[in-house]
Amino acid sequence: MISRRAIFAAIAPAFSPGGAALALRVSDGAVLRAENPTTARTAAAAPGSAIKPWLLEALRPWISRPCTGRLRIAGRNLDCIHPSLAAPLDAETALALSCNQWFAASALAAGPRPVFRRLLQCGAQAEEAQTPEALQLQALGLEHVSITPELLARAYRRLALEAGPAVRSGLRRAVLEGTAQAAAVPEVEVAGKTGTSRGGAWFAGFAPAAKPAVVVVVFQPAARGPSGAAPIAADLFQWAKRAGHL
Q1: Mind listing the domains of the chain with CATH numbers?
Q2: What one-character-per-residue DSSP string does 24-51 give?
């Protein structure tokens, strides 16, 4: 078995000292690997789009919505970065492409209480949004919500066990065609989501997509963008495969 020191030595040039990384076994929630475990337990930050898969349940009924690509909330430019699509986006595609406009509109339709309750279910620190702008920013994981890497990993373990086909397929497509492509691993069907906020860069996901065995979460406070955490997640999934966990 490859040692913990060896795997993290291999990713050390990209890993932020203030960050954290976790690999959990889906079957029983056991921690298989941890880097900076104290940080993983205690450092809470806004998760950005990594919270979107967890919030989908609160946004029912899912409605296909068009996306113009442009989104301004409370003076912030939150334009979508996915390709322009002529047809309205369903929930699976909105998740796969991380469509900010779809999630912001769906949160407004659902209202603040379901979003708030869903966030509390995964242990996130949150407050019920008092304005439409606050609700939209919360649904995008940017403000009025924070979570530790360990709690996000536990939430994704629940997704791995309970999520329906739309969520699983959306997360798989996020790795195949969306912002999480840097987390892809040959011969392993990785499903996952990146996230970026003022707190840093995130990746959260599981593999194999159809029958999850391992959850991986990476938090990089000094990084931004889709490539900030996903490559480290790929290294962890590769380790899990070599160690016989996948």
Answers
A1: 4-242 (3.40.710.10)
A2: EETTT--EEEEESHHHHHH--B--GGGG
